[in-house]
Design brief:
The complex is a heterodimer of chains A (258) and B (425).
Chain A: H1 2-9, H2 11-25, H3 35-54, H4 62-84, H5 86-89, H6 91-96, H7 103-129, H8 136-139, H9 142-166, H10 170-183, H11 199-204, H12 206-218, H13 226-250, H14 254-257
Helix pairs in contact in A: 2-7, 3-4, 3-7, 4-7, 4-9, 4-10, 4-12, 7-9, 9-12, 9-13, 12-13
Chain B: E1 6-19, H1 27-32, E2 40-53, E3 57-61, H2 68-76, E4 83-88, E5 92-95, H3 108-118, H4 123-137, H5 152-164, E6 170-174, H6 182-197, E7 201-205, H7 209-215, E8 218-223, E9 226-232, H8 233-262, E10 286-287, E11 292-300, E12 309-311, E13 316-324, E14 332-339, E15 344-349, E16 363-370, E17 378-387, E18 393-406
Parallel strand pairs in B: 3-7, 3-8, 5-6, 6-7, 12-18
Antiparallel strand pairs in B: 1-2, 1-4, 8-9, 10-18, 11-13, 13-16, 14-15, 14-17, 17-18
Helix pairs in contact in B: 3-4, 3-5, 4-5
Classes of the chains: A mainly alpha (258), B alpha/beta (425).
Chain lengths: 258, 425
């Protein structure tokens, strides 16, 4: 509880780290901040080309089907992979000055989150421009889905960033884990094609629910399934709780290990 | 708040560090070289307890590696003790690492926000302090320039200004008062005094004992992870000072003995006496006609041991061994104490003292006893010489050897002047 109170007191630090990260991300490039928008747009073009001309699928508007799942996934996976290195990357700060250590993963995940929000501007632009249309009521549930995903991502980032301090290989192992995780989540395909016996695994994967919710709202234009959302929220809280406990325990020796 | 309230309470804390001879943090290394990741445990703090009351200024002293910086790190919660308890009442600001999180490309103003945020200030709090911070840093004209364009002094001034304006209840300071020029240092000290007067608790770690004496109410002396002494700062500082002096004398003597063993034979004589070159080179360290030669000189402490380190007030002797190459009627021996800059502090010889020295021996030793050595702490050089009756140098060492004086007298200058203060009106 006292940790939460302290984190609240340090909100300005989180805010300033997020700002610094967002500003620094495309620093020195000609297009600068525009890359936040150009990048997902270019990705969309590539996927459209591949799946319209080479790998033809029978899913209607596959590019959109993929796009609305991919943007949230990228937020999640970068939170755990790059987020894992976040504490190590700030070692100068950690070794020299006191602040609640959780500020680091929190601000990193938050900056990825803000980045995702900006990408959603592109998502909506595409939805509107291609005439796919939106369901206003369904879109209202979007903030809830995003919040659930944020909790999940934060829980994972707390866990991975703390463990990486003691075990640096994790950073690299996570690269492959996140790739496997991506294929174990119905992002590029539909959950309906998953074999029956593998379904329990998919249902335990919180990202399955999260992605399905996003897709319901933005692709199927309907209010997401409540059970899906609830199981995602439940798993999200659990992840966050575990991440919080582990981080709190491990952070005591950060300064010595770094 | 009450003055007698406890600000910091430290109860029996211990801290050890793992020292890896070669640490393998990677999976491969951990699996392959299990033995290698064995570590030694080095205890740094072995059970320390102290209490600091609100509004008190406490100095932590001790030689390098005694655990004082570790103590400070534990107080800031950068690290945690292995056992024991630390209670800090109030907001803590540490002036341990100034300018943490400064970004060189951002302006001074932006960096104030980033840096102050690291101390846990909210935007509103920073806004209200911004003017004070900028004013204190004296960087008004440069505040919107990127920090990379600042000189190191400006950088430190900005960082210090932020740290000191955090409005902490407890301020932890580690060896950082060497900030900027003297004026700024004075300003910092005045500010610290103001803060102290307003009831802020301050802990300082420094090697500068005068800071502790001037500024702190009490001091804690740590040695090898335990508290040797704590109490009013002048007493602790004096005790520490004595201890360090003794330690220095001992270690210097040990080194000297070791060196003496290694060089059992005296160093080879310098060759090419000056007479052959037709003149005397007065600028050389050793010059003279060498009709009589100084073969060795020694400085002896009060117990008669050869030494190069003394305390003010010691009774010392200087012995000069000489060899006569060409007998003269009279020899004049002299000695002098010089500063490292070559300034003569004191010089004397047998002629000035109206002592006629003559000898018919080929070799001999002359000694001069110095009572109550009046030199203050510092490094000096000894000059020894022998000249003939007319003052022609026979063998003149401008700088025979260096020696050091340690002292509990903290007067400035070179010479101790016995004195008393009294109020006459």
């Amino acid at each position: 509880m006292s940790t939460l109170k302290e984190l609240y007191a340090y909100r300005q630090m989180i805010f300033s780290l997020v700002k610094k990260d967002l500003r620094g991300r495309y620093k020195g490039s000609v297009l600068g901040f525009m890359w936040t928008f150009i990048n997902p747009l270019l990705q969309l073009i590539v996927y459209t080309m591949v799946f319209s001309f080479i790998l033809k699928t029978n899913i209607e508007r596959y590019y959109l089907y993929l796009f609305v799942a991919l943007i949230p996934w990228i937020f999640f996976s970068s939170s755990i992979t790059v987020g894992a290195a976040s504490v190590v990357a700030q070692k100068d700060l950690v070794k020299k000055i006191y602040f609640p250590r959780m500020v680091i993963p929190i601000s990193y995940v938050t900056s990825c989150f803000v980045n995702m929000l900006l990408c959603f501007i592109v998502v909506f632009a595409v939805i509107i421009c291609t005439g796919a249309g939106v369901n206003a009521v369904a879109v209202l549930t979007l903030p809830v889905i995003m919040a659930v995903e944020y909790l999940l991502a934060l829980g994972m980032a707390l866990l991975t960033s703390a463990v990486t301090v003691y075990f640096r290989d994790l950073e690299h192992i996570l690269g492959i884990i996140s790739m496997a995780w991506m294929y174990m989540t119905p992002i590029m395909y539909d959950k309906s094609i998953v074999p029956e016996r593998l379904l329990p695994v998919f249902n335990l994967n919180p990202m399955t629910h999260v992605i399905e919710c996003y897709r319901d709202v933005l692709y199927n234009k309907r209010v997401p399934d409540l059970t899906s959302l609830l199981s995602a929220a439940g798993l999200g809280m659990l992840f966050l709780f575990i991440g919080f406990l582990v981080f709190n325990k491990l952070q005591r020796h950060f300064a010595e290990e770094l | 708040m009450e003055r007698n309230e406890t600000a910091i309470e430290v109860k029996n804390i211990t801290k050890s560090f793992k020292v890896y001879p070669d640490k393998g943090a990677q999976l491969k290394e951990r699996l392959l070289f299990r033995k290698r990741s064995r570590f030694e445990i080095r205890p740094v703090l072995k059970g320390i307890s102290f209490t600091v009351r609100k509004g008190e200024a406490v100095g932590l002293i001790g030689h390098n590696g005694c655990g004082k910086s570790t103590t400070l790190k534990l107080l800031t919660r950068i690290m945690y003790p292995d056992s024991g308890e630390i209670t800090m009442n109030g907001r803590v600001s540490s002036l341990i690492e100034l300018g943490a999180g400064f970004h060189p490309d951002m302006s001074g103003r932006e960096n104030i926000y980033t840096n102050a945020a690291i101390f846990g200030l909210t935007k509103k709090e920073i806004d209200s302090r911004l003017a004070d911070i900028i004013e204190f840093s004296e960087l008004e004209e440069f505040i919107d320039n990127p920090v990379r364009t600042y000189s190191s002094g400006m950088y430190m001034r900005l960082a210090f200004s932020v740290a000191i304006n955090v409005d902490a209840d407890i301020l932890l300071i580690d060896e950082i008062l060497a900030v900027g020029d003297t004026n700024f240092q004075t300003k910092c000290f005045n500010r610290l005094r103001e803060l102290k007067a307003s009831g802020i608790t301050i802990i300082i770690v420094t090697h500068d004992l005068s800071t502790i004496e001037k500024f702190c109410d009490s001091a804690i002396w740590l040695n090898d992870g335990v508290i040797v002494r704590e109490g009013r700062s002048p007493e602790v500082v004096d005790a520490y000072f004595d201890f360090m002096n003794k330690k220095r004398i001992d270690s210097d003597k040990a080194a000297a003995e070791k060196k003496a063993k290694e060089e059992a034979a005296p160093p080879a004589e310098e060759n090419a006496p000056a007479e052959s070159s037709g003149g005397i080179d007065y600028s050389a360290n050793r010059f003279g006609l060498r009709y009589i030669e100084i073969t060795k000189a020694r400085m002896l402490d009060s117990s008669g041991k050869d030494s190069r380190i003394f305390s003010t007030g010691d009774n010392i002797s200087i012995e000069i061994d000489f060899r006569v190459n060409k007998p003269l009627e009279e020899y004049i021996f002299g000695f002098g104490f010089y500063t490292l800059e070559g300034e003569c502090l004191y010089g004397n010889n047998t002629q000035l003292d109206r002592i006629a020295v003559s000898t018919d021996k080929k070799e001999g030793t002359i000694a001069v006893d110095v009572q109550d050595l009046p030199l203050l702490a510092g490094k000096y050089t000894l000059n020894v010489a022998v000249v003939d009756r007319d003052g022609t140098p026979m063998d003149f060492y401008r700088n025979y050897c260096g020696f050091e004086v340690v002292s509990d007298d903290r007067s400035t200058g070179y010479i101790r002047v016995r004195h008393n203060w009294r109020i006459t009106k």
